[in-house]
Amino acid sequence: MNRILFEKEEISGGGATFGGVRAEHVLKVLHGEVGQILKTGELNGPIGTGEITAIENGLVTVRLTHDAEALAPWVDLILAPPRPRVMKRLLPQLASLGVGRIVLVGAKKVEKDFWGATLLKAEIYRPLLIDGLMQAGTTALPTISTVRNFRKWLRDDLDREFPSARRIVAHPYGADSAPDLGSPSGRLILAVGPEGGWTDEEVALLEEKGFVRYSLGPRILRTDTAVIALLAQLQKTADTPLTVGTNI
């Protein structure tokens, strides 16, 4: 947890009082004490610092100064979702790596019972995304939407929702180096298939919409491994560099 984040409604009069996991981290890991300066931020807002002004009964009170812009998302993800337990493990990392929008699509090889998973409820997935943001030290909360009819959405809605022309589809039988996507400005759109892979028809439909194949090599990877590896590779083409570090 590299930055303590607050919901807008938690902040009042330039300060906030908090408990739970965040306070436990401050007190037990950071050995927080009155006068100590913490890295803080407002969810979907600016970042800055918080000075601890009081500690009482497991609650921490801070005076906040948020006057800096947080890192912006640099990529959007079209994902044929894996099993819920894998997805649960993946979500914090997507937030950490700078994904802005996540569209979960009903590709042919997606398990049909996924769409009834409790993970799709905002009260379940939202804390996972916030954990990822606090690790990365930024504030832009990814949005998640679902599309059951993938082919219809590609045909009717993709260009309206994602006007960017910088589109990549991950496929093990594509080029083995990053494709030329032109200007580095604008967000990338990355499409990653299910663990059984995209069908030939789905790859063809994506290519018709301007997606360029990109491969990490001939090995077939699990979805969570593939997505993280792809984002780490493609980050090199984005405007914002990736900083790798440990928890503080």
Overview of this structure, please?
By secondary structure, the protein is an alpha/beta fold. It folds into two domains: 4-68, Hypothetical PUA domain-like, domain 1 (Ribosomal Protein L25, Chain P), CATH 2.40.240; 75-237, Alpha/beta knot (3-Layer(aba) Sandwich), CATH 3.40.1280. The protein is built from seven helices and eleven strands. The protein has helices at residues 20-29, 84-96, 122-136, 150-156, 158-161, 200-208, 223-234; strands at 4-6, 15-18, 37-42, 47-56, 59-68, 75-79, 99-105, 143-147, 167-170, 188-192, 212-214. It has a six-stranded parallel beta sheet, sandwiched between helices. Strands 1-3-4-5-2 form a five-stranded mixed beta sheet. β6 (75-79), α2 (84-96) and β7 (99-105) form a beta-alpha-beta unit. α2 (84-96) runs parallel beside α3 (122-136) and α2 (84-96) runs parallel beside α7. The longest helix has 15 residues, at 122-136.
Number of helix segments? 7
Please write the CATH class name of the largest domain. Alpha Beta
End-to-end separation in angstroms reads 7 Å
CATH superfamily of the largest domain: SPOUT methyltransferase, trefoil knot domain
Q: Which residues sit in consecutive blocks of at least 5 with pLDDT less than 50?
A: 240-248
Q: What pattern of helices and strands is seen along the backbone? A: EEHEEEEHEHEHHEEHEH
Task: Please bin the fraction of helical residues.
Answer: 25-40%
Output the structural class.
alpha/beta
Rg from C-alpha positions?
20 Å
Number of strands: 11
- Strand order across the largest sheet: 8-7-6-10-9-11
Shape: elongated
Mean pLDDT: 88
CATH level-3 fold name of the largest domain: Alpha/beta knot
The CATH architecture category of the largest domain equals 3-Layer(aba) Sandwich
